[in-house]
Design goal:
The chain folds into 3 domains: about 140 residues, N-utilizing Substance Protein B Homolog, Chain A; about 55 residues, Alpha-Beta Plaits; about 200 residues, Vaccinia Virus protein VP39 (Rossmann fold). The chain starts with a helix and ends with a strand. The strands form 2 sheets. Strands 5, 6, 7, 8, 9, 10, 11, 12 and 13 form a 9-stranded mixed beta sheet that branches. Strands 2-3-1-4 form a 4-stranded antiparallel beta sheet, with helices on one face. With about 425 residues, it is α/β, with parallel strands linked by helices. It contains 17 helices and 13 strands. It binds S-adenosylmethionine. The site of S-adenosylmethionine has 19 residues, from helix 13 and strand 6.
């Protein structure tokens, strides 16, 4: 199958069926594909979504009438063509002719002429069209307007940094399993494999790779010496203040990145209970635990419905890494820009608050709850904690003294574009 046609099919699943980009890639990319071709399909699919709002703006200036909904694959193919011309170094004539020819693989040869005309017109008029970018914030920043406005309201001094950072390709960070190998030793193993990497200051197990690589080439990966995890996510374990003998709950645990880090940080816990309601993601958690050689109690359940899984024995520590808008991780998941709707934020905040209330009821007196999101929206972060503190007089907010993140009213916020991490929010509550 032709790579451009594969990318067009992936993109139309995302744009039309609202399927997540990683699921669409797994569904469409054949297992037999060569790795170089697979990388090109991913480049096109991720790149088009990263720049979707700008490319769509170009397209609207190049077409006389919009592409019909049933031809979303053709629209996606044109966007792939525009992406190559505007953002990749593919020679223009090759980009145009290969994109035109891909119509055959979509069984739509009638679209050849249309695609040829649009791409050639872009080549002629790109300078003029690009001058009009300043007329549209959506096109200029390549984000939906509601999100641009929300970020401007929440982060008046930082919103443009955040938007620009969201449009970059993400770095690859590793978490070294200090139970198996020291970071210095692991850096030597990387160097011996010709993988350039540097330690990350302020996190004793974090490593940043100069160039992303396939996990299969990471030394000791299969043996659990290392995991892939953004440095923003690597702060959670330390904030839980883990000591031997504690009973810990990870209430929204899958696929298990923070959960595994908890046990790597403190293997002498009395117990670690992991709950998640998504069976597919829990399977990944199980695979990760097996690879890392750790064991824990796992429940497939709604963490907010205690009677489904809880035995009534309270926890000393709870990590509540709630489902959220994921607006802090857009550079890794650019499909969020097109899939997330402003109206869906209210659903997240309702769920988050429900989970927070229920987790609180399972926390021991003097116990600690860490509320975490990968969101940069105040609604999901400080506003939730403010509401909770108002309604629960037995909750107190612990001040975090950290050398990272921005101090907010009740927690710490890491913003994309300030440092190298994804966007995360953390707040610590203690039960009086
Ligand atoms: C931000 S992700 C967790 C990431 C995870 N802590 C990690 O570090 O790998 C949020 C998780 O919450 C789960 N979830 C959503 N609603 C839930 C609920 N009511 N009960 C339990 N898990 C839930 C989702 O399936 C998702 O896996």
């Amino acid at each position: 199958m032709d790579s451009r046609a594969l990318a067009a099919r992936i993109l139309s699943l995302v744009l039309q069926e609202k399927i997540h980009l990683d699921s669409a890639c797994s569904e469409i990319i054949p297992a037999t594909i060569e790795s170089r071709e697979q990388a090109f399909v991913m480049e096109l699919s991720y790149g088009v979504l990263r720049w979707y709002y700008r490319l769509d703006f170009f397209l609207n200036r190049l077409l006389n009438k919009p592409v019909r909904r049933k031809d979303t694959d053709i629209k996606a193919l044109i966007l792939c063509g525009l992406y190559q011309l505007a953002f990749l170094r593919t020679p223009a004539h090759a980009a145009v002719s290969a994109t035109v020819n891909a119509t055959v693989h979509l069984d739509k040869p009638w679209a050849k002429q249309l695609i040829n005309a649009v791409l050639r017109r872009y080549q002629r008029e790109s300078a003029t069209i690009e001058q009009t970018l300043n007329n549209s914030e959506t096109a200029l920043y390549a984000h939906p307007q509601w999100l641009i406005s929300a970020l401007r309201d929440d982060w008046p001094g930082y919103w443009q940094n955040i938007l620009n950072a969201n449009n970059q390709k993400p770095p690859m960070h590793l978490r070294v399993n200090l139970q198996k190998v020291t970071r210095a030793e692991y850096l030597r193993l990387l160097a011996a494999s010709n993988i350039e990497a540097v330690p990350v200051a302020g996190l004793d197990c974090a490593v940043s790779l100069i160039q992303p690589v396939d996990v299969d080439v990471l030394p000791g990966f299969a043996q659990g010496q290392v995991s892939v995890q953004d440095i923003g996510a690597q702060h959670a374990a330390a904030l839980l203040d883990l000591n031997p003998g504690l009973r810990v709950l990870d209430a929204c645990a899958a696929p298990g990145g923070k959960c595994a880090h908890i046990l790597e940080t403190q293997p002498a816990l009395a117990s670690l209970t992991a709950v998640d309601r998504d069976q597919t993601r829990l399977k990944r958690l199980g695979d990760n635990c097996q690879r890392l050689g750790i064991s824990l109690e796992i429940y497939h359940a709604d963490a907010g419905v205690a009677e489904q899984w809880w035995n009534g024995n309270p926890f000393d520590r709870i990590l509540l890494d709630v489902p959220c808008s994921a607006t802090g991780v857009i550079r890794r998941h650019p499909d969020i820009k097109v899939l997330r709707q402003e109206q869906s934020i209210g659903n997240y905040t309702d769920q988050q608050y429900r989970l927070l209330e229920s987790a609180w009821s399972m926390l021991k007196s003097r116990g600690r709850l860490l509320y975490a999101t990968c969101s940069v929206l105040n609604q999901e972060n400080d506003q939730q904690i403010a509401k909770f503190l108002k309604n629960y007089p037995d909750a107190s907010n612990i001040d975090m003294i950290q050398e990272w993140g921005l101090k907010t009213g009740y927690g710490l916020q890491i913003l994309p574009g300030i440092g190298d991490a994804d966007g995360f929010y953390y707040a610590v509550l203690e039960k009086r």
